Amino acid sequence: MKEMPASHAYRLLEPGPIVLVTTAQNGKANVMTMGFHMMVQHAPPLIGCVIGPWDHSYRALCESRECVIAIPTVDLARTVVDIGNCSGDKVDKFEKFGLSPLSAQDVGPPLIGECLANIECRIADDTMVETYSLFLLEALRIWIDSDRKERRTLHHKGDGSFTVDGEVVDLRERMVKWRQLPD
């Protein structure tokens, strides 16, 4: 075994796929790339995510208390990285990257038409924002493009490289303890 810096733990434990987060402020939609997020609980469905004052979307999220978490697939990899490399205070990212904003049902920020899925969210708890930039978001509604052929998601390794979802191992018949959880 070779030691690596403890500060690189995120490179090993990245909890989920890279996502895009949409917010809206003063009638203007923005989108950012986010890698630091995790499921916190099943019901109500809570998602923890780190969005800090260094992100242009931070102020819009704090003021509106709502956002959309959009899940892109591997065919959008370069766009996802490019979105993360510019700021919404200088550019309209929907226009620049040719993204289709779709109306959400319960929140103001738009869904992203090119993504596999979109989760409408509202802030459930912001008590950890000042200390950790950690928002707990409640998932209100999920939209999925069931006709989308590309379904593989991207997982950031923390150094500019990504792992792409691959083979699915189906062990549902063995997961007897978890059958009691709500669908």
Automatic annotation (TrEMBL):
Give UniProt keywords alphabetically. Answer: Flavoprotein
What InterPro entries does UniProt report for this protein, alphabetically? Flavin_Rdtase-like_dom (IPR002563), Flavoredoxin (IPR052174), Split_barrel_FMN-bd (IPR012349)
Which residue range or ranges hold the Flavin reductase like domain? 11-163
Coiled coil location: none
Q: Which organism is it from?
A: Mesorhizobium neociceri
Q: Which GO terms describe its molecular function?
A: FMN binding; oxidoreductase activity, acting on the CH-NH group of donors, NAD or NADP as acceptor
One of its Pfam families is Flavin_Reduct
Q: What is this protein called?
A: Flavin reductase family protein
Q: Which PANTHER family match?
A: FLAVOREDOXIN, FLAVOREDOXIN-RELATED-RELATED
The protein's required cofactor(s) are namely: FMN
Membership in a protein family: Belongs to the flavoredoxin family.
